[in-house]
Amino acid sequence: MSGSTRGVDVSSWQHPYGEQVDWEEVAKEGFTFALVKATQGTHWVNSWLDRDLDDARAAGLLVGAYHYFELGPAPKDQAEHFVGSLLGQWLDLGVWLDWEPPAMANFTATGYIDEFVNSTNDGRPNCGLYVDLAWLEVLKSTNRTFGRLWLADWTPAAPHEGQLIWQEKIGTVKGIPAPVDIDVLTTTRAANLPTAPAPKPTAATVHSMVLKDEPEEEKTVSDDKENVGE
Questions:
Q1: Which of 16-25, 78-87, 153-162 bottoms out in mean pLDDT, i.e. has the lowest?
Q2: Into how many domains does the chain fold?
Q3: 140-157: string of b/e by CB count within 10 Å (b at 16+)?
Q4: H/E segment holding residue 28
Q5: Nearest-5° Cα angle at 173, 202 to 130
Q6: Residues 6 or more apart from 134 whose CB is under 8 A from it?
Q7: Which one of 35, 93, 101, 191 has the fewest CB atoms closer than 10 angstroms to its CB?
Q8: Domain presence at residue 36
Q9: How far is Cα 65 from Cα 190, in angstroms, rounded to an integer?
């Protein structure tokens, strides 16, 4: 894939007071892909999900979707909720598990991740994993591999070996009403990346007004997670 490999990941937080993202402006700023939060737990669905995916795709961006994991609901049930929210959506960058829970025993963490990923793969193959540096070290210690990796590292360090997507910072982007995570696609390995589709009309242009979403947990990347895992 030629040109810039910068992208953004968005959720309802990027729609303060019901403001829309202008994906045409985002594309003009040189961004080439977007990852959209789809679900959280077993009940919450991002009411902007279809519109953001449709409009980002229509603007020529590659798209993917992610699920924010909640402790409590069974991983299999969360996976089914996630996959069910994406019916009819073509996702160039596929689907991802956003894994940010507090510290827990390593075998418990890998068990939850395995159950979610395996269940998701039944409907959406090749589910990737989003983690920060602390959780990456924990998972490395288990000698387990989890396929495609999306790593949050807001230090000045270069991208880490083996990751597909690098979440490098939070910033402002013209066309997005609120600060947003900015990512870099570090390699096309293990990703199905066809040529970005040409802009085309989508159902998003006739979507009804969307009410402000219920509060959701913000993604955070901190440097104080040294005690993650046991």
A1: 153-162
A2: 1
A3: eeeeeebebbbbbbeeee
A4: helix 23-28
A5: 80
A6: 225, 226, 228
A7: 101
A8: yes
A9: 16
In a domain, 221, yes or no: no
Domain region containing 40: 6-206
pLDDT per position as a tens digit, 199-222: 444 444 444 434 444 445 544 444
**164 SS3 class:** coil
Say what the pTM is. Answer: 0.83
- Residue whose C-alpha is closest to residue 221's, from 135, 145, 147, 148: 135
Assign 3-state DSSP to the chain and report helix, strand, coil percentages, each to 5: 25, 20, 55
Q: Which residues pair with 169 in a beta bridge?
A: 182
Residues pairing with 33 in the sheet: 7, 62
The answer to whether residues 56 and 26 touch, using CB atoms and an 8 Å cutoff, is: yes
| 126 assigned to some structural domain | yes
Tell me the C-alpha distance between 88 and 187, whole Å.
27
Could you tell me the pLDDT band of residue 163, with boundaries at 50, 70 and 90? confident
Alpha carbon distance 44, 64 (integer Å): 18
Question: Which regions of the chain does DSSP assign to beta strands (E)?
Answer: 6-10, 33-40, 44-45, 62-68, 95-98, 128-132, 149-152, 165-171, 180-185
Residue 140 sits in a domain whose CATH number is: 3.20.20.80
**Distance, first Cα to last Cα, the chain:** 41
Would residue 217 count as lying in a domain?
Answer: no
Kind plus residue range of the DSSP H or E element containing 144: none
Residue matched to tokens 């402002």:
172
